[in-house]
From TrEMBL:
Name the record gives this protein: BTB domain-containing protein
Superkingdom of the source species: Eukaryota
Cited InterPro entries: BTB/POZ_dom, SKP1/BTB/POZ_sf
Pathway: Protein modification; protein ubiquitination
Family annotation (PROSITE patterns): BTB
Domain (BTB) ranges: 86-161
SMART domains: BTB
Length: 262
């Protein structure tokens, strides 16, 4: 009688733990989750918390050092303005003398001089503006002047396309480079086929290099369509020199395109 041998075959499963590479230190670590190892994660969390604390400290310092903007006071009342110790008044050229009741923008000489080298020279050199305590700003609206002074105190301003153009002109005139850059970036964000020629002409007049190059590039890329616009004909009549510049850029693009094909 043959005996049947029973063999118990129990399979042994070997589980290999998947190794991942940390994107920070590039070392392998045992985890099924992609990303960073525990050490790098904890270090990044500590760094993030430190940065948050530094940001809060900087915000507190800025709040402490920040001048209150005098344009937030009653702009037509000299008694209200004196409560924030202003010592100079800015008047738009289109407005009448402040003595006749026209609106004016109060400010501090120290702030104006610290924000603008033009104001600094004006107020330090015993010019009429320094002696009289009144600075007349030509070719500007009251709203633009008020926003300009507001920015000098707060580095903040609410823009639309017209205000951005007005403030860029003021920023260029008084050498407030941060405001000029801010306005230029805003206008670039609003650039389109409808305002390309206006932006190109404006940037050429006021040395806004980035806006100039971006608007020119848009025009060159869409020459066939854009040259049919009324704005193109207006520019031909007002400043043909700019039209020459446009066609020089267009021809250069054609030459480069042809050379690339060869």
């Amino acid at each position: 009688m043959s005996s049947t041998r029973l063999v118990d075959t129990t399979s042994t499963t070997t589980t290999t733990k998947k190794k991942m590479k940390c994107i920070s230190c590039k070392e392998e670590y045992g985890s099924s989750d992609a990303g960073t190892c525990k050490e790098c994660y904890e270090e990044a969390s500590e760094t993030e918390e430190e940065l948050k604390q530094e940001i809060e400290e900087l915000k507190s310092k800025v709040a402490f050092l920040r001048f209150p903007s005098p344009v937030d006071y009653n702009r037509s009342s000299s008694s209200s303005s004196s409560s924030c110790f202003t010592d100079v008044f800015l008047v738009a050229s289109d407005d009448h003398d402040r003595d006749k009741g026209a609106p004016f923008v109060p400010a501090h000489k120290t702030v104006l001089a610290s924000r603008s080298p033009v104001f600094k020279a004006m107020l330090e050199n015993e010019m009429e503006e320094s002696r009289s305590g009144t600075i007349r700003i030509s070719d500007v609206s009251y709203d633009a002047l008020r926003n300009f002074v507001q920015y000098l105190y707060t580095a903040e301003v609410s823009l639309d396309e017209q205000m951005a153009c007005d403030l860029l002109v003021l920023a260029e005139k008084y050498e407030v480079k941060y405001l000029k850059s801010h306005c230029e970036k805003f206008l670039m964000s609003k650039l389109n086929a409808e305002n390309a020629f206006m932006c190109f002409a404006f940037s050429s007049q006021h040395y806004a290099k980035n806006l100039h190059e971006t608007s020119l590039s848009l025009i060159v890329e869409n020459m066939d369509k854009l040259t049919k616009q009324e704005e193109y004909q207006e520019l031909v009549e007002k400043d043909p020199r700019l039209i020459v510049g446009i066609y020089e850029a267009y021809l250069a693009k054609q030459v480069n395109t042809a050379a690339a094909k060869d």
